[in-house]
Write a structure and sequence with these properties.
alpha+beta; 12 helices; 7 strands; about 15% strand; signal; isomerase; Trigger_fact/SurA_dom_sf; rotamase; peptidyl-prolyl cis-trans isomerase activity
């Protein structure tokens, strides 16, 4: 992506792409390990500009967000817009922490690394670019954490009511005609368990074991029997998953898989890979609904709040104590 263009210029548009990518629904429950998006910290040179339920937004936070908005070519009263963005994000972060639905720092770091790789950079190079532009890696990662975690909260609260009604689905299918097909996968998850206490000493060994097992994988029907021949290996049946519903962490690995398994990755549980039991193009009502939900999530990631999100954020604001200084 960086061929022939400035790295900073690539991040201008890349930040928006990242927001869309990280807003994909993430299946499963929040990981039990360290959570992302810690409370804001006041530095010695920053002034407190806003208090949100006794948590602070500093002049330093606002300056970083202004720099980030400039990278995205946003215009207008940037100090005011940046301040309000940060207030909204802090309200979201507080709610994410209240309902315990934050992604882990591992998830955020993985997304950050993928973003760097997609822009032909190492994470160290991305760190340098963000530092030079006054955004900082920490600020960008906090942004990623909110973008990844907030859809979980929305889905938990509005999951059922947020679905399209039959009439809405028919209307949108009529409008989109042939644009509602997607890929259907049936998946199994193979987990080489690594206890938290042994992550540092056992992780590399388990990854080597997982990678070696992929070449011998006998197929989904024999997956559990296969797992039973190895130590501390479990198999989860994920069932039918449509392409728009793939977790961000797995989506590129599934789409680039050349055999019946994906590459392995390190997660909170240990080392994992997915077995692709079947794959085909579908265009039924469920597929159409998944496509439309992903379109709506994309709009949300670009700042076009859905009705449910606006309702939720307005409710959080009405109950919050927000003090501007």
């Amino acid at each position: 992506m960086f061929a022939g263009q400035n790295p900073v210029r690539a991040i201008l548009t890349g930040a928006v792409a990242l927001a869309i990518a990280t807003s994909l629904p993430i299946t499963g429950q929040a990981a039990p390990q360290q959570r992302a998006a810690p409370p804001a910290v006041v530095s010695g040179t920053s002034e407190v500009k806003v208090l949100v339920n006794n948590e602070v937004i500093t002049s330093g936070d606002i300056a970083k967000r202004i720099n980030f908005m400039r990278l995205q070519h946003q215009t207008g009263d940037l100090p005011k817009l940046a301040k309000e963005q940060l207030v909204t994000e802090l309200l979201k972060r507080q709610e994410i922490q209240r309902v315990r639905m934050s992604v882990s720092t591992t998830d955020v770091d993985a997304s950050y690394a993928r973003f760097a790789a997609s822009n032909k950079m190492k994470t160290e190079q991305l760190n340098e670019v963000l530092a030079k532009t006054g955004v900082t890696p920490a600020h960008f990662k906090a942004y990623i954490a909110i973008q990844m975690s907030w859809p979980r909260v929305l889905n938990a609260r509005f999951g059922a009511s947020g679905k399209l009604s039959p009439d809405e689905l028919i209307t949108r299918m009529t409008q989109n005609k042939n644009n509602t097909s997607t890929t259907e996968y049936f998946l199994k998850q193979v987990i080489f368990v690594v206890p938290a206490a042994k992550k540092g000493t056992l992780e590399a060994k388990r990854k080597a074991e997982a990678d070696a097992s992929r070449a011998k994988f006998p197929g989904c029907e024999q997956a559990k029997v296969f797992a039973a021949t190895m130590h501390d290996v479990s198999v989860r049946d994920l069932g039918r998953v449509l392409a728009p519903e793939l977790p961000t962490q797995w989506k590129p690995l599934i789409e680039s898989a050349t055999g019946n398994t994906t590459s392995s990755i390190v997660t909170d549980r240990g080392v994992e890979y997915l077995a692709i039991c079947s794959k085909r193009q579908v265009s039924d009502d469920v597929a159409a609904a998944a496509v439309f939900r992903q379109e709506d999530l994309g709009k949300n990631a670009q700042g076009e709040a859905t009705g449910n999100e606006k309702k939720y954020v307005d409710e959080l604001r009405s109950k919050a104590q927000i003090i501007y200084r």
